[in-house]
Amino acid sequence: MKSLIIDKLYKRVEERGVVCLGLDTAVEYIPEHVLEGKSIEEAIFQYNKEIIDATLDVVSCYKVQIAYYEALGLAGLLAYKRTLEYLREKDAIIISDIKRGDIMATATQYAKGHFSGDFEADFITLSPYMGMDSIEPYMPYMESGNKGVFVLVRTSNPGAEDIENIDTKDGSKVYKVVGDKLTKMGENVKGECGYSAIGGVIGCTHVEEGKEIRERYKDMFFLIPGYGAQGGKAEDVALYLRDGNGGVVNSSRAILLAYKKENKPEEFAACARREAIRMRDEIRTAVNNL
Question: Which UniProt keywords apply (predicted)?
Fold first, then answer.
């Protein structure tokens, strides 16, 4: 069994904790002194760079949501490209949140576009609702050991009930059918840590299901949204982890905008670091109290 990118992420969680810092950077998040005299591209990159420098040793990875950059056109995409390049330069683990879900030739191009070139990331997010053939074009990159995916399984939004939680004819749930198929598909891309390079997006807001989901998908590494603003607590998150690993917990605005809570815009990066450490330690305590 060879070492995969999922092994690197597992080790980062061991070393630095479960926090996944979401660089969902809107222009309105950026303090005035950073914006002043700069282009949109330069201001976003400078803001991201200072956040990265301040948090690199206290978060396991960074999730960059492409929509925030696409919305700004070419200037935003240049900032996105530069942010990814800087993260790679720092040997940070990158999850590009792109949620692609097309099939065949189109999916092959998405894989090429986000696993190589200007927008290269270590992991990307995918939607499985056109079927497992929407995941297959990414497999060669995972089999090489260098890349991984996080596929939507049980998300944290209220609308998850509309499709994911529907009963199937055999008495299961749609999300369980998806999760089971992904588990089978991921058997050939398991790392030394025991987890597959095909991970799942599992929100922590369905607490009553937490233990069952973690038990059912022992080999699936989770990307866990829902903590903080969406109502997920540290003790909820702990249910989705295994011995404090097996997943990363995303936080975006709470970290990026921590300076507003402290009313210290000149210290936005230091405030982000303090919030990331607070979150990491809170979750560690919850895991230890299970």
Answer: Decarboxylase, Lyase, Pyrimidine biosynthesis
pTM greater than 0.85 (yes/no): yes
Between the alpha carbon of residue 70 and those of residues 45, 62, 77, 97, 149, the distances in Å are: 14, 18, 6, 12, 21
The HSE-up count of residue 17 (CA atoms within 13 Å, CB side) is 23
Specify the residue for token string 């004819």: 169
In three-state secondary structure terms, 166 is coil
Q: In CATH, what is the architecture of 5-289?
A: Alpha-Beta Barrel (3.20)
Among the listed residues 189, 243, 198, the one whose alpha carbon sits nearest the alpha carbon of residue 220: 198
Single out the residue of 255, 266, 222, 226 nearest to residue 241, CA to CA: 222
Q: Are 168 and 174 in contact (CB under 8 A)?
A: yes
Predicted pLDDT at 2: 62
Query: What CA–CA distance (Å, rounded) separates 268 from 32?
Result: 11
Burial class (CB in 10 A: 0-12, 13-18, 19+), 263: exposed
pLDDT tens per residue across span 250-286: 999 999 999 999 999 999 999 999 999 999 999 999 9
Please report, for the chain, the start and end positions of each structural domain, with discontinuous segments joined by +. Answer: 5-289
pLDDT at 238: 95
Q: Which residues are catalytic?
A: 99
Q: Which of 82, 110, 187 is nearest to 143 (CA)?
A: 187
Percent of all residues in the chain with a pLDDT value above 70, rounded to a whole number: 99
Strands of the chain (E only): list them: 19-22, 61-65, 94-100, 123-126, 148-154, 198-202, 222-224, 247-251
